[in-house]
Description:
With 187 residues, the protein is an alpha/beta fold. The chain contains six helices and four strands, in the order αβαβαβαβαα. It binds FE2/S2 (inorganic) cluster. FE2/S2 (inorganic) cluster is lined by residues 23, 25-26, 52-54, 76-77, 82-84, 87-88.
Amino acid sequence: MTTTATTAAKAGAFEPEIVALCCNWCGYAGADLAGVSRVQYPPNIRIIRIMCTGRVEPNHVLKALQLGADGVMIIGCHPGDCHYSSGNTRAVDVIEATREMLRPLGMDGRLRLEWISAAEGSKFGKVVAEFTEQVRALGPNPMKGTPAAGRGATRPARRPGSSWTPSSTARECTTASSARSAPRAAP
Length: 187
Ligand code: FES
């Protein structure tokens, strides 16, 4: 635990709870490297390992916020390094669509998409520290415990120029499953 977090916890100050969806091949490996390298970062983060950021849907973010997360991070491979070719490209569209849903609520600042490779443990620590401070400044999540993440809210309209549509999910998941059987070697 960092000195700032320790001091804040002792003072009873708001400590954000942050959910990080990390892709198996880069984001999670970067978090692992941060751990073994003893990189210091705030303990506010709860990591969930996913196979690829391309599997993230708006309802994953909304559900996390509904269930009490004060912020949500999506961490994946750098552009061109996705082990399923275009999962992170898809994630850009999905996260931007989700951000647009959150913007009218003033909650778009609680969502962050980052690219972190398996070799970037120190970047992982830096990004987590930055986002923790950002969410701390925003204060507690006002959406906590609301029904805002209901089914109707999980289907944003397609943005002009976006390659992502809700109906493309099944097709892309099938593609990702095929690709998973022969993943590329870790960078
Ligand atoms: S973003 Fe890491 S495998 Fe796709």
